[in-house]
Amino acid sequence: MTSQDSPLGGPLDLPEDAYPKHPHAKPKKRGLKLAFIIVGSLVLIGATGFGIWKFVLNKSSTNTANTSNTNTPSTQNSSNGTSDVPASELTETYTSNTLRISFKYPKSWIVSEANGGVLISSPEFSFETQNNGVVQGNFKIYIRKGAREQDRKYIGTGVAILPSQKLVYSEPLPDQRTETNLSFFGENTDTNFAFFLIAGNYELQKGDTLGPDYGKEPETYIIAGGYSGKALTDDLAAYQMSPETFQQTIAYQQAVEILKSLQIK
Prior knowledge:
The protein is of the alpha+beta class.
């Protein structure tokens, strides 16, 4: 909020005595005129002060109303009905002895482990998709060793929408690499975002693909994530998002922080 300039001008001066001094002038009449001038000036000052008080009071009420109606970005719904998850620190730690990994995550996220994989899901929120409009869903991260046939189906149709980015681990273990490549894929085309994938040594450019055989080796980690929901039952199934906006949600940003905290034994 910026302070408003005061509507007050300079001080109100009484008008100078325009009447010539005359030895025969009656003091009573002159004093009465001066009294009228003083009283009139005081009334003007009082009216001006009351007007200023009303202006300040109205301005303060308006600003208070505007402040009370303003929500934080994590809870505010935009005009198209989208929302986001609350901002949160990584306060919880999960360790999978089966996959030999450990990571930190926000308390509001949910971690489950089944069928040889770990699923990390954000709280539900609404987001704009390219293929289904506004949907209620979540952002999820999926981790397993060795891609199954249904996983390779999604990886095989992925087309890089951006050059790979370096992801630096925050606390890597002694035998763990300090950084890796994070790649972003659209489904069958580079005009949408479907999922990201930690691709290790593979540094991709826009339009590149990994092919359906990626991750067939049982020791290859499949670490992927995207915008999903209850209607999408496959672990790597995701909604198509705009390539220009997919990185803007708090949910996405928290997912990247989870990836940075990943420790691989």
